[in-house]
Design a protein that fits this description.
Strand content of chain A: 15-25%
Number of domains of chain B: 4
Strand order of the largest sheet of chain B: 11-10-12-13-15-14-22
Shape of chain A: globular
Bound molecules: iron/sulfur cluster
CATH class of the largest domain in chain A: Alpha Beta
Shape of chain B: globular
CATH topology of the largest domain in chain A: Rossmann fold
CATH class of the largest domain in chain B: Alpha Beta
Radius of gyration of chain B: 28 Å
CATH superfamily of the largest domain in chain B: Pyruvate-ferredoxin oxidoreductase, PFOR, domain III
Radius of gyration of chain A: 23 Å
Strand order of the largest sheet of chain A: 2-1-3-4-6-5-11-7
CATH superfamily of the largest domain in chain A: Thiamin diphosphate (ThDP)-binding fold, Pyr/PP domains
Number of strands of chain B: 24
Distance between the termini of chain A: 51 Å
Oligomer: heterodimer
Number of domains of chain A: 2
């Protein structure tokens, strides 16, 4: 098996495809069964389109999902896959990624799956920095169970289970991932194929846990949740694009920017005209300190969404759990050479022994 | 001074002291010495769940019982012949277990008013006649230890801490134990702190010399080595044997072992042990919780490793859903449950076997899981290998039910020859296994992940990285053969039955049960599983020794039951099922074989006692045969008859 080093650290050890593969080859024969108009379709298309671009062998790609609408994803890709149980996909993917360096591992999850029932596994995967890419489809609602509020729904949301309005304060998934020591944290939008593809490629290229929140519209139970950032009329004012090394500017005329509050360290949006040029924040996704990335994540509305930063908040290098785990095995193995059977015999007859003849 | 040496065939000693007194270590060293001497032995550690319960109190008492003999023995013994009590609480907590005439060696140093009160003594038991039935040796062990190690200039506290080694030295003299292993052990253990090392060795030697010279002890004892089958032996605990069994499972199958585990008493030692064996390709992941432990193991199995998760009852409760996923995805997986007292947190450091029904049925839906159980500490090695064989051959999660007594108890273990261990072939799928014809009439080779082996009903195990065999599995019902999602009613019915049939077929691969019925005249069968093997065997021996007939069978496989079990049950008039639960195996046997199983149930966190069990067996034999059964009296009669 050829294991030519691909240009992406995240794919190191994954064998390269002999010839160029197509989106069709990555498409399984299963009928896709999301509701018409569901944002998941667009993400699926984007993923089927970008996977061949990675140049790795299809048989070395594994998709793991939990439970929820988006978790049907693996069935539609002709790779290896597991549609597991609610919230546990990151733990299963941790086992796969740690066991095998030659696999490229993806987790597909939703806001309920990853942030509610599986919150613990998500934060620990991020903390360990296991080499995998987590796609969190955030539609801010429970779809598969037919429309209850989710941990990202705005407070006061009226749903079947909350006729008088939900009382839960929502999570900001990007803030959470940063707080959990995420080494790659990004946000993108289902309907922006170009942005989606570029963020996913960067995520796959990153070695470690890449966390990508995808704003995904659920036309059935939470239609329009992301209208502000999708509608051509409002999106210029609503999307704060984060581009590494560039000034953070938005608005149809690029008339807004972001500055740091000198007293609190937090950041806020201002009219560029009102501040000195040097005070406008330049995005640095590679900063070792996550403080600014976190501050930027707080520019997201946690109520009804009117404004949100989009892009890669943070991308830093940190040793991965799986690389180090394999390294320990390799080191220990090198320190104890020999036939396994002989080593086993030596192991079990260690300690104080005596012989009966 | 030359002293009298008395021959004994077996002795039970219990070392008891405060949690901080090092009683587990003392007991373990005495055990190793006895093993080196060649006795057969069996041990029972008993310690509080608290790491350091309040000093000098009853809950803080930790003890270690060792039973050693010149013949083959099966249990750590019902009642100690000798109690070593390092403080008033240790005396009080253990006195109730002593038979009349037992010897008590007591460290008088801590028998102060304050410590007596802490232990709940109103008066000093050494000063009234409350211990009159016992042979009490009052010794200032602490004082003598401090004096003995004076030259090392340790603090009084550090000096006093070597008192356990003084006690060990004394007991080692008393039973003629070889001392070399203990000296070597102390040298290694305290290599980095020379004064502590030397003080401990000194205390140990002084304890021996004290025994030799004092007039307090006029006899020493000899327990000759036990005849054992030829071979190389070592003393081993259940958790260690289990960990070795898992390493062996990896070697014999050629698969790297992947352990996903969350620490829990009494299973954590398996995680600790396996984490030392990365040289065998073993990966250990200390997960964020029990669920992640099994999740990572399932992921590793999907990726072609030997996935293992280790836990105790509460952990199994948390893993249940993931275990169901492993049943549905039909992946090899080992789930080790070192049972402890339940329900809920229960008794973390005490033993019980009340998770059998949880292992059988503790999941949603029809979710059959094979179950194996070891019967003794050393047997944990073989049980682990058997679990690996079943998991890999049948592509299924397997539950292994150990328990607290097996986990921490120890026995001499004949080290197996590696060449004699079973080979386990994972037989990964490498080729497509099915041909379909598409609309155009063109034939297409496909991989069907649920196309089964005709004999075992196992599905193919195709691991990621294998070209052409890409497939998706998951928790939703699978269509027969192709494995795509299927909500078809008939398919579900078929798949439910097939998963059950696959587990049932394991029985075809099992050897016939060993029925221990030497006379062939028994009307009563005693049937057990797990760690009750020792007490049941000892109880059965007593009954036979008294001249009565009784048969014994012990189950390694709880699911499926061996094919010949039903027929064996029918052969006996009465079937007694001793269990450390309220009758879980009984329930299964009654349900499956309509046998009127009679339970003998004890759920007190401690192993069954052979004597009480023998009485119960005797009563049943009496009923079955319509005779009067007198175990003790008849014993004397048989002896007379033999003469
Ligand atoms: S319920 Fe919503 S999220 Fe689920 S498939 Fe339908 S549209 Fe998509």
């Amino acid at each position: 098996m050829s294991t030519t080093a691909l240009p992406f650290p995240g794919l190191r050890g994954v064998p390269e495809a002999d010839e160029k593969q197509t989106a069709k080859e990555f498409t399984s024969d299963q009928e896709v069964r999301w509701c018409p108009g569901c944002g998941d379709y667009a993400v699926l298309k984007a993923v089927q389109g970008f996977l061949p671009e990675l140049g790795i062998r299809r048989e070395n790609v594994v998709f793991v999902s939990g439970i929820g609408c988006s978790s049907r994803f693996p069935y539609y890709l002709d790779t290896y896959g597991m549609h597991s149980i609610h919230g546990r996909a990151p733990s299963i993917a941790t086992g796969i990624a740690t066991a095998r360096e030659d696999l490229s591992v993806f987790v597909v999850t939703g806001d309920g799956d990853a942030l509610s029932i599986g919150g613990n596994h998500l934060i620990h995967a991020l903390r360990r920095n296991v080499n995998m890419t987590i796609l969190l489809f955030n539609n801010r609602i429970y779809g598969l169970t037919k429309g209850q509020y989710s941990p990202t729904s705005e407070a006061g949301k009226v749903t079947k289970s909350t006729p008088m309005g939900s009382l839960d304060h929502p999570f900001n998934p990007v803030s959470l991932a940063l707080g959990a020591e995420g080494s790659f944290v990004a946000r993108t939008i289902d309907s922006d194929r170009k942005h989606l593809t570029s963020v996913l490629s960067a995520a796959a290229a990153h070695r470690g846990t890449s966390f990508v929140e995808i704003y995904q519209n659920c036309p059935i139970f939470n239609d329009g949740a992301f209208d502000a950032i999708k509608s051509p009329d409002t999106k210029a004012d609503a999307i704060i694009p984060l581009v590494d090394g560039e000034q953070i500017r938005f608005g149809a005329e690029r008339q807004y920017g972001v500055v740091r509050d000198q007293d609190t360290g937090s950041v806020h949006a201002v009219e560029v005209a009102d501040v000195a040029e040097k005070d406008l924040l330049v995005h640095d996704a590679h900063s070792p300190d996550p403080t600014t990335a976190f501050a930027l994540s707080r520019l997201t509305d946690n109520g009804v969404l009117h404004r949100a930063p989009i892009g890669i908040f943070r991308a830093v290098e940190r040793p991965t759990y799986d690389d180090q785990a394999r390294e320990q095995v390799t080191t220990a193995h090198a320190a104890a050479p020999g036939e396994p059977a002989d080593k086993l015999a030596a192991l079990i007859s260690g300690g104080d022994t005596w012989t009966v003849v | 001074m030359s002293k009298q040496v008395k021959q004994l065939d077996r002795v039970i000693i219990r070392f008891a002291g405060d949690s901080g007194d090092g009683m587990q270590l003392t007991g373990d060293r005495f055990t190793q010495e006895s093993a080196a001497w060649g006795n057969d032995l069996s041990t029972l550690p008993n310690f509080p769940a608290e790491i350091r319960a309040p000093q000098g109190t009853l809950p803080g008492v930790s003890s270690f019982q060792v039973h050693f003999a010149d013949h083959d023995i099966l249990t750590p013994g019902d009642a100690p012949d000798v109690l070593v009590a390092m403080n008033p609480a240790a005396l009080k907590a253990n006195l109730g277990d002593l038979p009349k005439g037992a010897a008590i060696i007591v460290d008088t140093h801590d028998f102060t008013t304050r410590n007596l009160t802490k232990a709940g003594y109103a008066a000093n038991p050494l000063e009234d006649d409350s211990l009159a039935e016992f042979a009490v040796h009052e010794l200032d062990l602490t004082g003598m230890t401090v004096e003995a190690v004076k030259e090392f200039g340790l603090s009084r506290k550090d000096a006093a801490r070597a008192k356990n080694m003084f006690a060990l030295g004394l007991l080692s003299w008393m039973y003629g134990r070889p001392t070399e292993t203990t000296v070597a052990f102390l040298e290694k253990r305290f290599a980095k702190v020379p004064d502590i090392r030397d003080a401990n060795i000194m205390a140990f030697n002084k304890g021996w010399h004290f025994g030799e010279t004092t007039e307090a002890f006029v006899v020493s004892y000899e327990v000759k080595p036990a005849p054992m089958p030829p071979g190389t032996y070592r003393n081993i605990t259940g958790n260690l044997a289990l960990a070795y069994g898992l390493v062996a499972g990896g070697v014999q199958s050629g698969l790297p072992v992947f352990l996903g585990s969350y620490p829990i008493t009494p299973a954590s030692d398996i995680l600790h042990e396996l984490s030392k064996h990365k040289g065998f390709g073993v990966t250990t992941l200390q997960a964020e919780d029990e669920i992640a432990g099994i999740g990572a193991a399932i992921g590793a199995s999907f990726a072609g490793h030997l996935g293992v998760t280790t836990t105790s009852g509460p952990g199994i409760a948390l893993k249940s859903e993931a275990l169901g996923l492993a049943v549905m995805t039909e992946l090899p997986l080992l789930v080790i449950d070192v049972q402890r007292g339940g329900p809920s947190t229960g008794l973390p450091t005490k033993t019980e076997q009340a998770d059998l029904l949880q292992a059988m049925f503790g999941r949603n839906g029809e979710s059959p899981v094979p179950i194996v159980a070891p019967q003794s500490p050393g047997d944990c090695f073989d049980a682990a290998l058997e679990a690996v064989r079943i998991a890999i051959t049948y592509r299924t999660p397997v539950m292994l039910l150990s328990d607290g007594m097996l986990a921490n108890g120890s026995e001499p273990w004949r080290i197996p020859e590696v060449a004699e261990l079973p080979e386990i072939d994972p037989k990964f799928a490498t080729e497509t296994n099915h041909t379909t014809t598409d609309k155009t009439g063109e034939e297409k080779a496909e991989f069907w992940p649920y196309l089964r082996d005709e004999e075992t009903l196992a599905r193919p195990w195709a691991i990621p990285g294998t070209p052409g065999l890409e497939h998706r599995i998951g928790g939703l019902e699978k269509g027969d053969g192709h494995g795509n999602i299927s909500y078809d009613p008939a398919n579900h019915d078929f798949m439910v039955r097939t998963r059950q049939a696959k587990v049932d077929r394991i029985a075809d691969s099992l050897p016939p049960l060993e029925v221990d019925d030497p006379s062939g005249a028994a009307k009563v069968l005693v049937l057990g599983w797990g760690s009750t093997y020792g007490p049941i065997g000892a109880g059965v021996r007593r009954v036979r020794k008294a001249g009565y007939h009784v048969a014994q069978v012990h189950l390694r496989h709880l699911n499926p039951f061996p094919n010949d079990l039903g027929e064996i049950l029918k052969r006996y008039d009465k079937v007694l099922i001793p269990e450390m639960n309220l009758g879980q195996l009984s329930l299964l046997l009654r349900g499956k074989y309509l046998v009127d199983a009679i339970g003998y149930n004890q759920v007190n966190g401690m192993p069954l006692k052979a004597a009480a069990l023998a009485d119960a067996i005797g009563t049943l034999v009496g009923e079955a045969e319509g005779i009067e059964v007198e175990l003790v009296a008849t014993d004397a009669k048989t002896k007379e008859a033999r003469r």
